[in-house]
Amino acid sequence: xxxxxxxxxxxxxxxxxxxxxxxxxxxxxxxxxxxxxxxxxxxxxxxxxxxxxxxxxxxxxxxxxxxxxxxxxxxxxxxxxxxxxxxxxxxxxxxxxxxxxxxxxxxxxxxxxxxxxxxxxxxxxxxxxxxxxxxxxxxxxxxxxxxxxxxxxxxxxxxxxxxxxxxxxxxxxxxxxxxxxxxxxxxxxxxxxxxxxxxxxxxxxxxxxxxxxxxx
Length: 216
Ligand SMILES: NC(=O)c1ccc[n+]([C@@H]2O[C@H](COP(=O)([O-])OP(=O)(O)OC[C@H]3O[C@@H](n4cnc5c(N)ncnc54)[C@H](OP(=O)(O)O)[C@@H]3O)[C@@H](O)[C@H]2O)c1
Hints:
Oligomer: single chain
Bound molecules: NADP nicotinamide-adenine-dinucleotide phosphate
Distance between the termini: 20 Å
Structural class: alpha/beta
Number of domains: 1
Strand order of the largest sheet: 3-2-1-4-5-6-10-8-11
Order of helices and strands: EHEHEHEHEHEEEEHEEH
Number of helices: 7
CATH superfamily: NAD(P)-binding Rossmann-like Domain
């Protein structure tokens, strides 16, 4: 059993992740912004922690993180323009990393982005800015002493998970369901041999526990 702090717990991936972690018997702390979210998080068995990444400071967030084994960052503001990307995916990630270091949380799992995602569709300057922010924050995390794991998923879908994925250092771009991303993150939290590594993740045919074990 692990004590896991999930940042982005109310999102499409984060919500699935907390359910997966709780089903494994973990003690899950879930960052959320609105009071309504607190009730739902408590109902599924998570401990709600209210806070906004754009308002918290390092000491405050470190206070919430203290005693946790792992922090998982699945927060993001991909469709809200460059300022939101800078604030949440950029400064928010750095804040969470700094807070984990301050609190002595040893392990940090970051849900980043697949470098080749949608590059054939010319989605414009805001999207390119978003991708640059995600990469810059991967650089920030990898420069720390934390036991970090970075997962870079292809395009996220709401398809029902298959329980199987493709996971590797360099793989062809494809999509992947939020169910399977969450299951992969949960497995990564519990696989200590997955250590200071960056992995790309898409739909695939390898059972998730096997895919994570193969990546160690
Ligand atoms: N979409 C894709 O195809 C794709 C591909 C690769 C990677 N990704 C990455 O995967 C991440 C997770 O995807 P998703 O589908 O789970 O996203 P999502 O449903 O939009 O969830 C984003 C989460 O971030 C939280 N958040 C946003 N701003 C915040 C703030 N200021 N303070 C605290 N929390 C904040 C949201 O909280 P609220 O509930 O309060 O809004 C929510 O919990 C994305 O953000 C992106 O970085 C996405």
